[in-house]
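Recall from the previous lesson that a structure prediction takes nothing but the amino acid sequence as input. Here we apply that procedure to Hemin uptake protein HemP from Aromatoleum buckelii. The sequence below is the only information supplied.
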Amino acid sequence: MPNDLLLPPRATHRPPVEGASRGSAMEQHSQPIPSTQLLLGRPSVTIDHDGMHYVLRATRAGKLILTK
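The prediction returns the following tokens.
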């Protein structure tokens, strides 16, 4: 297998998300995602970002906390 086909060690190939914009990062950032869509009724979710795990938690006061 030629080296130019290998992905860098931390990179992963993920297919495009259905309905995702192919615009600039700024355009994608400007479209908010409702927290209810991320949490799906759970009190917290674990997010994998570049191999690091973060926990997004909703408080009883209605605030969000992101911890490493």
